[in-house]
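Hey team,

Sharing the TolA protein run so nobody has to redo it. Sequence (152 residues) first:
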Amino acid sequence: MKFSKLDTFQNRQAAATAAKNALAERFRAMPRPDDPAVQERLAQQVEIARAREARAAERQAAKEAEERRIAEEKAAALIAERERQVLESARAAEEAKRRAEEAAKAVAAAMNKEQLAAALDAEKKARALAQIAEQRAKREARDAQRRGGKKK
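Structure output:
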């Protein structure tokens, strides 16, 4: 406020009163909480907040569904890999058994009786080794399945 010599106390007091009245009038002119315009604005804000929460819930549900889908795909891939490993181990054991039998037949055909007796002992050993290899392959497959892909 400009201060000059021409201003008197009454003029300054009147100006202050006018400013206070203007401020009070401005406050009184503001809409009341029970005013329909204020109620409508509040209702819109509540509606916007609800819509925002609904969109957030939809995003969260979509995210969880995607995480579930990825987890299921990983589990299916892991199961398929385990099955492949078990089949591969079984094939390797069968192949070792077949080779041992073929070798035993070839040796038996070429040997005489004395050598046949010694070869039968060797054949028993070969069968025992093949059986041990097969049991080991089965055990390793079980252990791998139980560990769930964790390396030693």
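Residues 86 and 141 are 5 Å apart (CA to CA).

Ping me if you want the raw files.
A.
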